[in-house]
Each structure stands twice: as C-alpha cells, then as structure tokens.
Design a protein that fits this description.
There is one protein chain. This protein has one domain: MFS general substrate transporter like domains (Growth Hormone, Chain: A). Helices cover 80% and strands 0% of the residues. It is built from 22 helices and no strands. The N terminus is likely disordered.
C-alpha cells in the first residue's frame, strides 16, 4: 500500500518552528561563518592596492598598472560569485542549507591559506598572477554560495516578524570580517616596508585557518532550516530545477533585487578597496592609519546594519530602503569632501559617514528584502543569483570604476565617483519602489 504524502499541516507538525536554543545557535553560526568568509574575501581586497602590485607583477611594470591588474583579479572573484551562487544554491535548495555552508566555509579557508603561502613573481614569474586568479575564482565560487545560505539559515530559524533583524545578523558578518581583515593587516602594515612585503602581509591570510576551525565547529552544531525541512516533507524540494523555477516564476523579482543591491555594494567595496590607497597616496595619512580608520568605521557598521534591519521589521523594507537612498544621495558629496580635506579627523569622519550611515541605511534590510521575494524551494538559488549578480555590478566594478572615474580628464576627481554612485542609487531606489512590500504584519 502506498504511503500517504505529507500535507502542509503534516509537515508543519513534523517540523515545528525552531526552539530558542536552536535559533540562537543558528544566528551565531551564520554570523561567525559569514565573518570568516568575508574576512578571507575582503583580506584580498585590502591587500590588492597595498601589496600585490609590488609582489605579483614585474618590478619594471608601472605601479598604477599593477594596481589596476590587481583590481582585475579582484573582479574575477566577483564574476565567479554568481556561478557559485547558482551552483551551491541548487544543492542548497535540493538537499539543505547546512551541508552546503560547511563546504563553502572549508573552501574559503583553504584558499586563504594558499594565498598566504604563494610564491611571488620574482620566484615563479607569470605563474604567480595566474595562480592568484585561480585562487580568487575559487574564493568567488565559495562566497557566492555563502552569503545567501548564511542569511537564510538565520532568517528561516525565526518568526516572520523578526526576519529582517535575523537576516541582518548574517549580513553583519561582512563588516565584522572587514574589521578583522583590516585590523590584522593594519597591525602588520606598521612593520618596515621591506618586512611587510617580505612576510608581514602573509600572516593575516594564514591566520584564517584558526577562524575557519571555529566557524566549522559552529556550523556542525547548527540544525537544518525549519522552512527547508517543511518544504522537503511536502516533496517540494525534489521537483524541478531551482534555477529554472527562479527564471520562470520570478523574473521581475530577480531583476529588481539585483539592481537594488548594486549601489550599496558599490559603496562598501569602494571604501574598503579603493579609498584606503587613495587617501594614503594623498599623503594625508599613512597606510596603517588609513586601515585603522576603515576598521573603526566597520566596527560601527556592525551595529548600524541590524539597526536599519530592525527598522524594516517595524516599518517595512521599502520605506527604510527608500529613506536610505535619500540619505545616500544627500551625504555622498560631503563624504568625498571629507576624504579630500587632507585633515586627519575629517578623513576618519568620511569613513564613518560612508560605512555606518550611507552604506548601512539601504543595505541593512537587504537580507530579508531578497529572501522574501522567493518561496522556500527556490529561495537559496534566487537570493544567491540576485545578490551575487548585484555584487558584480556594484562591488566587483567599484575599484576599477573608481580608479577610472577619478582620473577622467574633466577635472571632476572624486565628484565623478559620487555622480556614478548617485546613478546606481537612483536605479536601486526605483527598483525598490517597483517591488512589493514583503513585510508580513500580524
């Protein structure tokens, strides 16, 4: 006799909401895992403008060209992220979030350690930058599957009324990873130039192994997403291709979500990767001081993201993100004026305006904003695809676009970057305006 299929009610009874202990464990695991992932990923970005032009390209090459090529390799990692998002999203939607997140974290840690052990151009010639490209692409694949998985593990372990705040806990892994990356790299940047370039820059990459072990332990202990288990019990996860479902059933949501995230992600990467070497080149601050300024702003950023996410739980995703767009447009020119002031405390204030205010105001609700666009059986793939394609358009292009715009012959300098950012924010705000409000009020 055939076994009766599970109804939605049966599934809910078999897989009830997570207990408070399971919820806390999921939130901590998502936060720590995302922190480790972004520590590894952003560490490359922090080193791209300061270290790699000196070590992985010929000494005879112009350092500006070396920096541009380092940013191209950085972009390669971002281009790989949508591929990783679709790949890991497929298996995450079919077989569960937990095991996929274990794999992505392991991949990131191994690649980071490998970068720390890499021989330079002087040792192996052209193989050095080519190997760096390969490792960066593997990093991109891993982080492409990480962001959505960590965000969903947090969001799907809580009640709907708290989903924005819960998703933001995983999202804050980004600035937390940035704090760790820039803080540790900044400490070693205080070494004499010769020692820093010889071995000092390698230590932060090798320390990734310690963080990965902690993150893997926490991921091992976390329970699978209750939402996924309920979908699995109904048989929804065993039918069709998640990517095909997303493209067929959610084309509008995918496009709107992708364009909505590009602006905030541009600001994040521009500050972390382009602005540090920019202010150092101006002579106003040294390398270590600039990294510490970025670290301080990222520390405040950790608390700003959940704050704006909490506001979105109370007032809706769209109102908060649209208000964030207005804040971004109003403050971007003052922010660049602070960076160009040549005054220590004003440059530090520029980072504070950029990260915890401009970037966080629109970025805070992003996790819930994207997750609520898709059903459970397509959610991992849908969120991965929208966020990671948006990251290519925003963060991936940020260093190269910023370097090109600031050197345009029109004399605009950083004002060119500001206008480009305003364009991205305007497009993003229009996409938010065209999106449905997904906050469920009870």
């Amino acid at each position: 006799m055939a076994t009766p299929s599970h109804t939605g009610l049966d599934a809910a009874q078999q897989h009830p909401e997570a207990t408070p202990k399971e919820t806390r464990r999921a939130l901590i695991s998502s936060f720590l895992g995302s922190t480790v992932e972004y520590y590894d990923f952003l560490l490359y970005g922090a080193a791209a403008g300061l270290v790699f032009p000196h070590l992985f390209f010929p000494e005879s090459m112009d350092k500006g060209l070396g920096t541009a090529l380092s940013f191209v390799i950085l972009l390669a990692g971002y281009i790989a992220r949508p591929v990783g998002g679709v790949l890991f999203g497929h298996f995450g939607d079919k077989f569960g979030r937990k095991n996929i997140l274990f794999i992505t974290l392991m991949m990131m840690g191994l690649v980071s350690v490998a970068i720390g052990l890499m021989p330079t151009y002087q040792t192996i010639g052209i193989a050095a930058p080519l190997l760096l490209v390969l490792l960066r692409v593997i990093q991109g694949l891993a982080v492409g599957g990480e962001w959505a998985g960590a965000t969903l593990m947090a969001a799907e372990h809580v009640k709907e009324k708290n989903r924005g705040f819960a998703a933001s806990i995983a999202v804050t892994g980004g600035p937390t990873g940035s704090v760790l990356a820039t803080l540790i790299l900044g400490l070693f940047a205080g070494l004499p130039e010769e020692a820093f370039l010889a071995w000092g820059w390698r230590i932060p990459f090798l320390l990734s192994a310690v963080l990965v072990i902690i993150g893997l332990y926490m991921r091992y202990r976390v329970t699978e997403s209750p939402d996924f288990l309920r979908a699995k019990a109904t048989g929804a996860t065993h039918t069709g291709m998640p990517l095909a479902r997303v493209l067929r059933d959610y084309p509008k949501e995918t496009i709107l979500g992708t364009l909505a995230v590009a602006g905030p992600l541009f600001m994040q990467a521009m500050l972390a990767i382009f602005m540090v070497p920019y202010v150092v080149a101006s002579g106003a601050v040294d390398r270590q001081t600039a990294l510490m300024m970025l670290t301080a702003s990222s520390l405040v950023h950790i608390f700003a993201i959940p704050f704006f996410a909490w506001l979105s739980d109370r007032y809706g995703r769209r109102p908060v993100m649209l208000a964030g767009a207005l804040i971004s447009v109003a403050l971007v020119f003052p922010m660049f004026a602070l960076f160009n002031s040549g005054v220590f405390w004003m440059i530090a204030l520029g980072f504070m305006v950029g990260n915890p205010i401009i970037q966080a105001s629109m970025y805070g609700p992003i996790g819930a904003f994207l997750a609520e666009k898709f059903d459970t059986e397509s959610r991992y793939t849908g969120v991965s695809l929208t966020f990671q394609v948006g990251s290519v358009l925003g963060a991936g292009m940020a260093p190269l676009m910023s370097q090109w715009l600031v050197k345009l012959g029109n004399g605009g300098g950083t004002n060119n970057i500001a206008w480009y950012f305003i364009f991205l924010i305007a497009v993003g705000a229009a996409c938010v305006l065209m999106s449905k409000e997904t906050l469920k009020r009870k």
